[in-house]
Amino acid sequence: MFGFLKEKLKSAVSIFTKKIDETIKEIEPVKETKKKNIEKPVEKINKTIEKTPETEQPVRKESNKINKPVQETIKEKVNEKLKSIAEEKRISPDKEPETSQQLTEQPAQIIPEKKSFFAKIKEKITYKKLDDNQFESLFWDLELALLENNVAFEVIEKIKEDLKINLVNQPIKRNHIEETILNSLKTSLEDVLQIPKFDIIKEIKNSSKPYIICFFGINGSGKTTSIAKFAYLLRKNNFSVVLAAADTFRAAAIDQLEEHANNLTIKMVKHDYGSDSAAVAFDAVKYAKAHNIDVVLIDTAGRMHSNANLMDELKKIVKVVNPNLNIFVGESVTGNDCIEQAQRYDIQIGIQGIILTKADVDDKGGTPISISYVTKKPILYLGTGQSYDDLKPFDKNQILQKIFEF
Predict the structure, then answer these.
(1) How would you class 340 by CB atoms within 10 Å of its CB: exposed for 0-12, middle for 13-18, buried for 19 or more?
(2) What are the structural domains, with CATH classification, of the chain?
(3) Tens digit of pLDDT per residue, the chain (406 long)?
């Protein structure tokens, strides 16, 4: 599970990181030019200071051979030059340097204590801020990878907006680009999967008998098998269970559920094919009350979410038995189709939880990531195989670990 998504995400993040890094590099030549322009006057001053002693020494040696007015003029010019250098190096004006040698021996007085221009330039080279237009063009590869893995549009927009906060108009350190992207993705998906869930076992224990659960979903989604797995889970937790074969529309539906009931030694209430499905559900609840049964599990006919007339039959079951919980069962591998089905069932009937089947063969993983965020309903269980034990509680931490283990 999530193998394809993990590889695609890894590749997309790598490309995304490389493109941001290339974008940042574009300003380096400009910054280097500025660095050189600032460096030149400082080097010039340093060279002047270093050469001053050599200039003064010959003047002093030849001073005896030069007439007095000329000697005084040279001395004044040398002093003026020293004063000018001292002022440029920000030496206090009331402290006149005695010799040029003292200036070169006291660098602490010349170098300012504030952050140097070179440090500021280095910082500007290391960091750069992306604007909105740059981000939009860079995000495409990551967005495409998410779309290919059945991640819903709403989730992609969430990831995109969170990445914008972390990357756009923010100082980006080049050697931390990938880390920033991955941390943002993890935080986004943690938020996406943060839909409050509830413990069904605890709910049943704290509710009056019988606790009634209706299961909905289209044909072929694994609804009947999921009911059998859930019944097995309830039996392991010492609950008594009765099944209601309320799918009277499909020829083999009653036989399929009855086979599971026999395997699990669980009572099943059934009518003939073509009977009123609401009547079957009503009789199952009546039987549970008469025999002090803890839980009633109602199988319903698979209906396409777009067929309004057939959906009315399901509404009738809900109205007649007033279930404690409506669970939507969908195939994880169908991606956005599964999410749309869940949305429609929620609008038409109202669902409180989700079971995703065939999660073990879903290599993309976009459905488990997206469906709760879109519907605001928790994933309760994942179907991960064909045996009765293969119904696993949904754990968002395990999902995140599988996605980001690269």
Answers:
(1) middle
(2) 3-26+126-192 (1.20.120.140), 29-125 (no CATH), 200-396 (3.40.50.300)
(3) 666 676 777 777 777 777 777 776 665 444 444 444 544 554 554 555 455 454 444 444 444 444 555 556 666 666 666 666 666 555 444 444 445 444 444 544 444 455 544 454 444 445 567 788 888 888 888 888 889 889 999 999 999 999 999 888 887 776 777 888 889 999 999 999 999 888 999 999 999 999 999 999 998 899 999 999 999 999 999 999 999 999 998 778 999 999 999 999 999 999 998 899 999 999 999 999 999 999 999 999 886 756 677 788 899 999 999 999 999 999 999 999 999 999 999 999 999 999 999 998 888 889 999 999 999 999 999 999 989 999 999 999 888 888 887 5
Strands 353-357, 295-300: pairing is unpaired
Residue pair 215/299 in contact by the 8 Å Cβ criterion = yes
Euclidean distance between CA atoms 359 and 93, whole angstroms: 80
Other beta carbons within 10 angstroms of residue 60's beta carbon come to 12
Tokens for 148, please give them. 């290919």
Q: Tell which residue, 193, 237, 130, 105, has the closest CA to residue 379.
A: 193
